[in-house]
Amino acid sequence: MTHPVPTGFVHRFEPGTAETAPPLLLLHGTGGDENDLIPLGRALSPGSPLLSLRGPVLENGMPRFFRRLSEGVFDEADVRRRAGELAEFIARARAAYGLAAPVAVGFSNGANIAAATLLLHPEVLAGAVLLRAMVPLAESPEADLVGRPVLLLSGALDPIVPAENAERLAGMLERAGAAVTHTVQPAGHGLSQADLAAAGAWLGRKSGLRASAA
Ligand code: MLT
To answer: Whose CA is nearest to atom 5 of ligand 1?
Structure first.
């Protein structure tokens, strides 16, 4: 590698092989790491450059992207701080690896930091696939997400994310101008084949994102 490795997050980077495939920013769920979502990224968008991060916060030894006070109750000051650090890292990684603005693909806690980053730093992401996300901040910041496509995939039987909460997140993103597709799958918090099919098809349709965000 000739470029300096960007600092701030433990991560893995896989260069892309397909010119039109958008770079993906992969953000794991609680207890995961930078290796977890690489196979998912490869399957969802073959040929995309993959930038896969490890959450910098430890909860009983499990990596996360921000602190929480209890299940579903977030330390919002920490959410804001960590979203800012993530936005700065994305800028450094784009310069180091020569990337267009990435599409975030986040699962659970990773989807929640992606949603917070969209709302707090809309300029750093070209769009997002939010898998089992919930509202990351009680008060929605004033964000301009006009033109940003967001796919939100929720689970009808999710014991962690109530249906009302996922709908509230979709509404927050829509009010900020994002083009939101919200689908509720017949699934729990874990991902199903239907999620993979829906996310893969959506990303395939967005393959122009790489060029348009460059
Ligand atoms: C969170 O803490 O971000 C959500 O409760 C999802 C989780 O990681 O369990």
So the answer is: 72
